[in-house]
Amino acid sequence: MGNRVDAVLAGLPDVRAWQEPLYRDLHQHPELSHREHRTAALVAERLADAGLDVHTGIGGTGVVGVLHNGDGPRVLLRADMDALPVTEATGLPYASAEPGVMHACGHDVHVTCLLGATELLARATQHWSGTLVALFQPAEEVGDGARGMVDDGLADLVGPVDVALAQHVGPAPAGMLGVHSGPFLSAADSMRITVYGRGGHGSMPQATVDPVVLAAMIVIRLQTIVSREIAPTETVVLTVGSIRSGMKSNVIGDHAVLELNLRTYDPAVRTAVLDAIRRIVVAECQASDSPKDPEFELYDSFPLTVNDDDVTARVHQAFTEFFGAQVQTIGQATASEDFSDIPAAFGAPYTYWAIGGIDPQKYRTAAEADRVSIDIPVNHSPGFAPEIQPTLDVGTQALVVAALSWL
């Protein structure tokens, strides 16, 4: 396969010339989930220029490009497009121009790499046969973008798919690729809990049921679920990320809202933790003499990402042949994705790998000459800033190499 890969990637210098400016443009103009209109328009234009059949508006702002090139396997490559409600603090000359919105997760890298890989494959059709499906998904960050495209008839529009492939940039050294077989990314659930008290004057707490104290007791008790109710061999993360109650220092409000996030790898464990959360909240409300039952809202649920063993082995071998020592086997990650909803709709196996995007040397300090600082910004942080190169080159090459191990 090496000669074919080299032949397709021979066009990378030409692609790089427009990729880097496009990446800066996407980074500077991030769009939140379900609002990726500008990004989708740029993607559709680039795909059409490359000669693909382009379908837009799938699941809202989703875009799919299809390139039929004779008989052979049908390979789907996916990138997500949405940004996050984060205020950028990277200091980059191409930092976000949208107040309070930032590509803090690297989806601008994903879009740019997939567009580059698609153009390279489209320019070198004499070196492969089959069908390429380039899918650009909205709303990954809220967990319903993939389902939205599926519910909008994605499978009927595209036809059968033999394999689905995707990648994600993260805070590993730029140029590195990480592969993992089996359960890789955790399932995730967010829950909004409203608990009720009885409001009153801050000087007379005895006449109230203080929802702030109630919420605090709930937070403390929730920490015992993982440590005391779940086996140590299970991977579970439970985080309370937000508590809101009251408007003034001397006024005790009448309710509090907690928002929490759960990560699991086992459906039975997930059920057990969700049941424990409800049990603890109800019990604490009763203990505080809450005047009203608590309310629970489950939202932003992400499926488990389980990489197919055979597909992963095939991609791993292809990566090793091309990238050599840059490829590593990595462990599970408690981040979450909705990518698996797409191959599930096609009944297709899949694999999902990681690419590095950080120059660790930038985060060394004078006192840390022999170790990398733990202050490297991770995904979703205001300082997350992938290196343009070699990140774009490696991400583009990885998609091409993986696709050609089937096409």
From TrEMBL:
InterPro entries given in the database record: Amidohydrolase (IPR017439), Bact_exopeptidase_dim_dom (IPR036264), Peptidase_M20 (IPR002933), Peptidase_M20_dimer (IPR011650)
Cofactor binding mode and count: The Mn(2+) ion enhances activity.
GO MF terms held by the record: hydrolase activity; metal ion binding
A UniProt-annotated Pfam family: M20_dimer
Domain Peptidase M20 dimerisation: 190-284
Record NCBIfam families: amidohydrolases
Entry protein name: Amidohydrolase
Taxonomic path: Bacteria, Bacillati, Actinomycetota, Actinomycetes, Mycobacteriales
